[in-house]
Amino acid sequence: MIVGVPKEIKEEENHVAITPTGVAAFIAHGHRVLMQKNAGSGSGISDRFYEGAGATILDSAAEVWRGANLIMKVKEPLPSEFQFLREGLILFTHLHLAANETLTRVLREKQVTAIAYVTTLMSNRANVEEEVVDADLVIGTVLIPGAKTPKLITRSMVKLLKPGAALVDISIDQGGCAETSRPTTHRDPIYVEEEVVHYCVTNMPAIVPHTPTYALTNATLSYGLLLADKGIPRALREDRALAKGLNAYRGKITHGGVAAAFGLKATPVTEAIAA
Fold first, then answer.
1. Rounded Cα gap, residues 43 and 197, in angstroms
2. pLDDT (tens digit per residue) in 148-201
3. Alpha-carbon distance 126 to 85, whole Å?
4. Is 96 a catalytic residue?
5. Which residues pair with residue 193 across a beta bridge?
C-alpha cells in the first residue's frame, strides 16, 4: 500500500502524523511512504530524517493525496482539503489520545503517593456546582469520542467563580463543556467572560509538538500498519478496537457519536464493511 502524509494546514497545528521510525516500520512491511515537503518541520523533524527512513518527499499536498491509498493526518481534513477526497481513499486521523480510565484507577495503577491530597467525587450537577464555587482553577476534560461534549458547567456556575479565577476547557475540540467556552488560538489564547479568565485553545498540545508527535506515532502506528497490511474490511473484522474508531465508510456513518451529533442514522461497522 502507498501511505501519504501531508503537512497539517490548520492554523498553529505543528504536529505531523508520523515519525521517521514510523516510516521505517511501513517500509519494513513492504509499503511506500509519501511525505509532503517540510511536513515534520513544526515538530522539529527535517525531511532528511524521513528520507533516511525510506520516505519519498513530494513538493505539494496534492501530489501526496493523489499518490496515496492511505492518508495519515493529525486532524480531519479542512474544507480546502475536501477536493482531495476520493473513492477508495483510506483516511486515518489521530483525533485524540483518549484515556477511558477513571481517575481512581489511574491513581491506583500509578501508585500515586500524594493520594491524600486528591478527592474524587461522583460527577453530578450538585457536586460540580459545589466544587466550582470554591475553585481558583477549573479544568474541563470531558470527552465522548466522536460526539459533542455535554455542557456540564453552566453560565450560572461560571458566575459563581471568584473574579479572576481561570477556566481551562480541554474539551473545546468537541464543543467545550462550559456554556461560556468558545474556541481560541495560541496566538490569542484567553478571554474574560463573567469575570473569569477562559483558556480554550483547540489544539493545546501543538504548543509543544515534538513530544506529542512521537506519542501519537507510538499509540497509533500499529493500527496504521494493520490497515496497510490487511486493508479495511479484514483489518476491522480482526481488530475490535480499530473497528470502534471507524467514523465513516463508503458514504455511511459508522460511529454512533458522530451520527448523533449530526442527527443522522448510524450504520453498524459489520454491515458497512459487508456491503
1. 29
2. 888 999 999 999 999 999 999 998 988 899 999 999 999 999 999 999 999 999
3. 46
4. yes
5. 196
Please give the backbone phi and psi of residue 91, each rounded to the nearest 5 degrees, phi first. -115, 115
Task: Say how far apart CA 265 and CA 275 lie, in whole Å.
Answer: 16
Catalytic residue among 173, 186, 239, 255: 173
- Residue of 51 and 112 predicted with greater confidence: 51
Residues in the chain, how many? 275
* Helices 20-28 and 210-230, packing angle to 10 deg: 10
Return the SS3 of 149: coil
Give Cα separations from 46 to 39, 51, 156, 180, 185 (angstroms).
8, 9, 49, 40, 25
The dihedral through the CA atoms of 54, 57, 62, 63 has a sign that is negative
- Put simply, whether the predicted model's pTM sits higher than 0.90 gets the answer no
